[in-house]
Structures are given as C-alpha cells and as structure tokens.
Specification:
Its main location: membrane. The chain has helices spanning 2-22, 25-45, 57-89, 92-97, 105-131, 140-167, 171-176, 178-183, 199-206, 209-222, 229-256. It is an all-alpha fold.
Length: 257
C-alpha cells in the first residue's frame, strides 16, 4: 500500500512539475519581489539602518538575507494555492479519484511541487545576494541546517496554502492569504534589530515565529554558535506544520466525501 502511494505521488508530482516548467514565470515572479526588496534595502535604505557594530552594504545584506528568503517562500506558496484551486475547479481531482490511485497522492503532489519550486526560487535569490556582496562563513553542516530549516518552513506554509486552495470560492481568495505571511518578516528582526522598535511592536516581533527563524539562519550563516532560537524556530515550524496539516486534511476529506 505504501509503495502504491509513493509511486502514485511521484507520477502526479512529475505532472505538476511539468506545468511549472512550462510556465517558469511563476518562479521568476516569485523571485523578483524578494530581489527587489534586497536592492531597495541594501542600496537605498541600508545606509540609514543601524544593525549593530557592522555597517555598510555588504554587512547589511548579510543581515537581511535570512528574512528575504522567508519572504520568497511566503510569496511562492501562493502559487500552490492557485494550482490546487485550479485543479479543484477543473475537476482534475474528481478524475484522479475515479482512477485506481492513492487518494491523497494528488494532494501530496502539489505539496512536493511547492517544495521544489520554492527551493529553485531560493537558489535564485541567494545567487543574486552573492552578486550583491553576501558572504558567509558557514560550514557544510551549517548550510545543511539552514536548508533543513527552510525546507521545514516551506512545508509548514505550503500546508497552510492547501487550505484556501481547497476551500476558496475564487482565485483571488485562494491567493489572498499569502499577503499577511509576506508582510510578517517586516515585523520581525529580519531588517532591523527588535531593540529599535517601540514597546508593543517589539513585543510582537520578539514573540512571532519569523524572528527566531531569522536569528537562527543568520547565526548559521555567520558561523556563530546558535542559542535557544533554533529550538524555538523548530517548535514554531513543526507546530505550524502539524496544525496546518490537520486542518488541510479535514478540508480535503470534506471535499472528496
């Protein structure tokens, strides 16, 4: 039964990835916004932002890149909701369910496609950051840890995207959920230290998931030892993933019932 599920999921993921490769503009547009944010903050606003002892364009892009990577993921998962909504409205899921394939394979194929597409987008954004002066002292182990956190964060947000993809009444409704997620890094330590924020904003910034994730990735890139932030980040990612997965599966069962 498990082998049947994996084979079906792989086949449907291949189908979904072909659609992405035929319209690469989805990956390009996902990468354009975070790249534009990097250009704006580094070359226009970066000189006016004090992030601590280090200063200048190079050090500031080192500081801000983790937050930009999370913005890229938040922007990318909106396309997951679009693709899923389109398949639901087009009756593709009904066709798949009439075939002798694992019923959840169609859903997992969209999740895995989101993961692959977002990883490609992250590579593009990181490549541009390197051209802009980003430098890292991270070891191979630290890079693997960064990739692991980004994969976990992508999966967590993707399962959130599945819910509106299944339940939205319109294509605009399917993608609108992503706007607060894209905005969330701006209310964190992604671009400025939380110490510079006014009281209520600082409290929110220090207790929302993006700050701990950004701080962990920043420390890993800098080759510094990570503190308790990594455990807070992992708890947030796993917690969001589990909760979103449960609600997504409930919505999916109601749709196919």
């Amino acid at each position: 039964m498990a082998a049947h599920f994996f084979v079906d999921t792989a086949a449907l993921t291949g189908r979904s990835l072909k659609h992405v490769t035929r319209s690469p503009d989805t990956i390009i547009t996902t990468a354009v916004m975070p790249i534009a944010i990097m250009l704006l903050f580094v070359y226009v606003l970066g000189g006016a932002i004090d992030t601590g002892p280090a200063s200048g364009a190079r050090s500031y892009i080192d500081y801000m890149l983790p937050g930009v990577l999370l913005i890229a993921i938040a922007a990318g998962i909106s396309y997951t909701a679009y693709r899923l909504w389109g398949d639901m409205q087009g009756g593709i899921f009904d066709r798949f369910h009439s075939m002798p394939i694992a019923r959840s394979a169609a859903l997992w194929s969209h999740v895995l496609t989101s993961l692959v597409a977002n990883l490609v987008s992250l590579v593009v954004v990181t490549g541009v950051a390197l051209l802009m002066g980003f430098r890292t002292g991270a070891s191979v182990g630290a890079w693997l840890a960064v990739i692991g956190i980004l994969v976990l964060f992508t999966l967590a947000l993707t399962w959130i995207a599945v819910i509106p993809g299944l339940t939205a009444k319109s294509v605009d409704g399917a993608g609108a959920f992503s706007y607060p997620l894209i905005f969330l890094p701006f209310l964190s330590s992604a671009f400025v230290p939380t110490e510079s924020m006014p009281g209520p904003v600082r409290w929110f910034a220090e207790h929302q998931p993006v700050t701990s994730i950004v701080n962990t990735i920043r420390d890993l890139f800098a080759g510094r030892s990570v503190d308790a932030d990594i455990w807070v980040a992992l708890v947030w990612c796993v917690g969001i993933l589990v909760v979103a997965y449960v609600f997504a599966m409930i919505a999916y069962r109601r749709k196919i019932a």
